[in-house]
Amino acid sequence: MTVRNKLVTIKLLHTAVWVFFKVVIFYLLYAVLVDRLDKWAWICLALIGAECAVLLLFRMACPLTIVARRYSDSPLPNFDIYLPLWLARYNKLIYGFILTGILSGLVWRVMS
User: Fold this and answer.
1) Whole-prediction pTM
2) Second label for 5, Cα 20 to 30 Å away, from 12, 52, 102, 108?
């Protein structure tokens, strides 16, 4: 497998993982908005917690980014994922704000 093919494979996998976690985040948002805190909502919360733990463990970098760095020296934030440049650059900030809102709503739902 060539270096280019390895990087493409990592980018595809990284994009698939990104999409998966966005589905998880938006299901949890839906669950909080409609007050449907079922087992799937709690599973989503656990998955998000695991994702945050992994990011903290790897100093706020996805492990796939670290692997992709072996095959590219590009300074662009989207060198390792199929996302628009602006979204790759502000991904953690955007979804951090969304998650803060979701978690605030979740606490409000559970406490009331």
Assistant:
1) 0.94
2) 52
